[in-house]
Amino acid sequence: MRRSTVADVMTTDVRWVPPDATFAEVADVFARAAVRAVPVLDTDRSLLGVVSEADLLVTLERAGTEARRQWWRPRHVHRGPSTVKAGAATAAALMTARVRTAAPGDSVAAAARTMREHGVSWLPVVEDGRVVGVLGRSDLLAVFHRDDSAIRAEVVDEVLGRALLVEPVRITVSVADGVVTLTGELDTRAETELATRLVERVEGVVSVVDLLRYRVDERLADATVLPRF
């Protein structure tokens, strides 16, 4: 079954700043590139940290007390005390060094899980210590741009044909705007449930309409078997 990787959907045109970039230079990159975070890279493109919009705002609001600023934590890093310093004037001082990253070979599903579990919306993509791309939530949605005919072919060939060994004539598969409808009959209730779960995992599938029937409900059959003593 097809499984897209981070390399398939990431943005390779990376906007970044050096550690000695001034506050004004960092803000200018944000404005010109229309981004909400930028990696801070060394001369060899190794990742040093990340500056986000929130980092800039904390500095702009430095008139407040340090205690009042402790409620804020950058959304793209591990939970923990903020490393932002009030009045920071360079990218090195502004950035957060502990950054969640992805690798080009990671699956899109794994990257999406990282974003969800850690409450982030953006990940630098790092290979051999160097930034090769960035990944945002909008990039992850690219897997849903798959053609309906390609989705149907994978459901018929890979899910029904190879995984479940179901004869094609037994199940009718139709796909419209990523919504897969399954019609037909399988042997057991468990097989229909498994078929639906596997189809839901196919890339590009938005939802599954399960109209499958089954010949035997094995749960009822098991209930009629008397226990042996």
TrEMBL record:
Domain of life of the native organism: Bacteria
Keyword Glycoprotein: no
Name of this protein: CBS domain-containing protein
Domain CBS: residue ranges: 10-66, 95-151
Gene3D superfamilies assigned to the protein according to its UniProt record, in alphabetical order: 3.30.1340.30, CBS-domain
Residue ranges of every copy of the BON domain listed in the record: 147-216
Organism: Pseudonocardia broussonetiae
Keywords: CBS domain
Record flagged with keyword Ubl conjugation: no
Pfam families the UniProt entry points to: BON (PF04972), CBS (PF00571)
Entry-linked SUPFAM superfamilies: CBS-domain pair
